[in-house]
Amino acid sequence: MEKIIVVFDGFCVLCNNYVRWVSKRNPSKNIYFTNFDSNYIKNKHPKLKLGDTIFIIRKDNKILQRSKAIKYCFKFIRLNYFLKSLIRISPNFVLDIFYRLIANNRYFLFGKLEVCSIPDDINQENILF
């Protein structure tokens, strides 16, 4: 099973909840999580900076963002077949419109944490510090 890495905004409440949600639905435990403030990102991918998107780092080091990242991540999680299919067939440019709208307003809509964090209720073996 391919190992993928989800890089997310550790200050964002929505992003932290997304990480929890994905972690619970990943039976293969092949999805790893880190935030932009981690030593892993600073050492291995220093060009990645906190912005308005989530990143996926694939096994081949290709980096995906926004709807491409979400779609790729969904390949590896348990999810309702109809919803998974609907997202898979939706054009990226349409999904990116909604993604950017939510991402640009995420702190206002969902809140912002005081410190950059990784949820402590996910499998610790799947966290890259």
What does this structure look like?
It contains six helices and four strands. The relative contact order is 0.26. It has a four-stranded mixed β-sheet, with helices on one face. The longest helix has 13 residues, at 92-104. The chain has one domain (4-120): Glutaredoxin, CATH 3.40.30. The chain starts with a strand and ends in a 19-residue tail after the last helix. The mean pLDDT is 94. The protein is globular. It has 129 residues and is of the alpha+beta class. The chain has helices at residues 13-24, 39-44, 66-74, 81-89, 92-104, 106-110; strands at residues 4-8, 31-35, 55-57, 63-65.
What are the low-pLDDT stretches, counting only 5+ consecutive residues below 50?
Answer: none
CATH structural fold name: Glutaredoxin
Mean pLDDT: 94
Number of domains: 1
* Topology, number of strands: 4
CATH architecture: 3-Layer(aba) Sandwich
Helix content: 40-55%
Helix and strand succession?
EHEHEEHHHH
- What is the spatial order of strands in the main beta sheet? 2-1-3-4
